[in-house]
């Protein structure tokens, strides 16, 4: 159990050599080794006593050795080796008794020391072995601790995983329970419903049984009959007819007719809806194209725009498509697809354009308003205000001009009418020539509008002129186109516009006031014709309203 | 708004004539026909027993009175008061009776739904239709009166028969893939027939006039299904109200659901307006305070004035917990009605019984919720314009239009618990029915009603 350590006195180094000799020779158990050592330690004393002791004291230095020993012993507390001298000068005699006592004392001491050493050595050995033992225990325990720690971590990990699993399972269980509860509720409600129905049916069944029983028992049956004073005629007044195969077939026919009508109606509705939506899409496409057309783009943007060329080519493509579409009547699948694809393209371009603008705006805001190309919002607003004012002014000017033109025309009319009057009154013979002259003077313009405008006062004249000759007016009436034809002209005009408008949404607003032809034109005719087929009356009423307005204006003349 | 005086009535039997000129009402076994404008009695007929059902013929010339206990139907003529007709079903018994659209045939359903007898007033012919189904809505006529669809059950299977009303010829007969067919209804355009199953199975089947199955729709399985069904007057939509508290709209082009409307008790929609009926606390002067309150005061409090108030923010409505172990529980959408122009849909969720939900069909969104202090009994749309009349069993009638809403107390001494309503075809007047009386409410023109409310203008 461990190594036994021997503690040797360094002064006995020679001895130790011998000891080593002995120890190396005899490899025995430690206890026997120790005893050997003890013996060895003691044996050399007996065997080599002469060699050892002769080294200290020889025949020559007896006195010196005695004195030295005496000194040493007295320092150790032993009595002196010399006899008590009577005088100082005489040589002290060795006290043999003292020497022997000292020797005995020393032997006793030696023995005690040896014993003590033994006990100390045994204790040492014991402690050493204890220490070894403890150290080995410690190492083992440390190992055990490590392993148990590792185990614990492993177990903890497992525990965590199991808890996780547990939680999941709990959740699943809860879900399943909820579902089960739900299904149970459903089952319960269905069961109550079934029971309720069953009970109802059973009650009915019972009633039926009772009634049957009653009927079987009851001999006298109440007569089932209808008692009416007189039969009433049919609601539609027709006679009743027999039921034959022909009537069956007729019923089938009628039924299919009804169904077909319904489907046709719906199809019509869907077609008109489709047409409207397509129109809207086309309009959107046109507007988008116009928004994104290259002229409007700023040169800077164009340079920045990497897809500029692509955009331009797209726009050209779409413009081409537009014309093609309108020609094809928008009914094939391919055309429809083309339309939607081109709209998508345009929309993408528009989106990228708007995004770019947004970026620019944000850039401008961050950089400040020093950029030349981008004007500040205030300036922009000021500009728009100015432009609006200008527009207002121009509009007013135009209106004023129109009014003046009208007045002038009225004046001219009036003048001509007065002239006519005068002529009628004065020269009766020269009617024809005069009137023809007048007519030619007035019908100088080939414009149908002019004719229509002037025909009205011509018509009015027969009523207002009392002195005038009816013959002349009738001739006038003959020579001038009568009002129905003017309305024909109006009609043909509207028809033409309608026909055109059937393919496109148009807003026709031809303002026919030309500053040059002051003498000819008097009224503005504004036509707003929408494409809906159902609004023909609206168109006509539009025309007639302008005519009535002109008619009324005539009335105000003196 | 003017109210007429109240007249006697029994069994909530009060009907306007289809041409709008007359008003028929029943008092026990007497039938009283009045002129609509003057409310003067024009005719008085006496039947043989207590009347359970009255119906005008489509041309407003005849009225039928059905007495189920005696198994009798008596028909009276307006033009010739001395004309009489009595149909006795005898031992066959009678459970239902109705006119055919031409006004010359009467369809009687005998007891136990054994058969339907078609009696003719023009000829001596009688027709029988066997195996009619005893269900909620087993007979439906097309709006133009040409065809009759009838639910039948033979050998534990459901069938539908389509008859031509002019000669009662069977046009089509086909089976329906239903467990227990509960109702059938023609679309207003007369070309599509909707058939739906009982509440145990959610199934709606759409058939064309010639019997082809156009489409089948099922929203979910197992839970209780369809409670109510309504066609929009334009035939564009079919609204299906179910026990899960939702209304699903099917469109007529694809017969697929386009949207579903939920009816939660808590309304968070900021765009929907919620009107709550609140009591107007009568103002008391200090001198009138006394304890306990005198009887007159108590009476006044019970029939106190109330008005609609606009509730703001998220609103929660009163709910009713349905009894779990009873059949036909009080939950789900039980009442559905489209306005005459199809722009609005009014619904009621039976577990929030005090509220009426009004949906804007153009936008497919919730428009208005009206909550009352007692459960809504019935509501009906004005036949001419989008105006809804509601009654809750109290003495008030409630009117809603996009311009606003108003609650009007029915005048008169004592209570007039309004249990039913009936619009006149012109929308100018409304008959209010209570257990023993009825009165007419004459509405002014649209503008008047708008200003009378004064609640919220420009709401649309």
TrEMBL record, chain A:
Domain of life: Eukaryota
GO CC annotation terms, alphabetical: adherens junction; centriolar satellite; ciliary basal body
PANTHER family assigned: AFADIN- AND ALPHA-ACTININ-BINDING PROTEIN (PTHR46507:SF1)
Chain segments carrying region Disordered: 445-471, 531-558
InterPro entries reported for this sequence: Adhesion_Centrosome_assoc, Afadin/alpha-actinin-bd
Name of the featured protein: Afadin- and alpha-actinin-binding protein isoform X3
UniProt feature coiled coil, ranges: 131-218, 377-404
The family this protein is said to belong to: Belongs to the ADIP family.
Compositional bias (Low complexity): 538-550
Chief location: other
TM helices/strands, residue ranges: none
BP GO terms, sorted: cell adhesion; intraciliary transport involved in cilium assembly
Keywords: Cell adhesion, Cell junction, Coiled coil, Cytoplasm, Cytoskeleton
Subcellular location as annotated: Cell junction, Adherens junction; Cytoplasm, Cytoskeleton, Microtubule organizing center, Centrosome, Centriolar satellite
From TrEMBL, chain B:
Role noted for this protein: The SSX2IP:WRAP73 complex is proposed to act as regulator of spindle anchoring at the mitotic centrosome. Required for the centrosomal localization of SSX2IP and normal mitotic bipolar spindle morphology. Required for the targeting of centriole satellite proteins to centrosomes such as of PCM1, SSX2IP, CEP290 and PIBF1/CEP90. Required for ciliogenesis and involved in the removal of the CEP97:CCP110 complex from the mother centriole.
Protein known as: WD repeat-containing protein WRAP73
Biological processes, Gene Ontology terms: cell projection organization; mitotic spindle assembly; positive regulation of non-motile cilium assembly
InterPro entries membership: Centrosome-WD_assoc, WD40/YVTN_repeat-like_dom_sf, WD40_repeat_dom_sf, WD40_rpt
Name of one Pfam family that matches: WD40
Subunit structure: Interacts with SSX2IP.
Keywords: Cilium biogenesis/degradation, Cytoplasm, Cytoskeleton, Phosphoprotein, Repeat, WD repeat
Superkingdom classification of source: Eukaryota
One CC-aspect GO term: ciliary basal body
Protein encoded by which gene: Wrap73
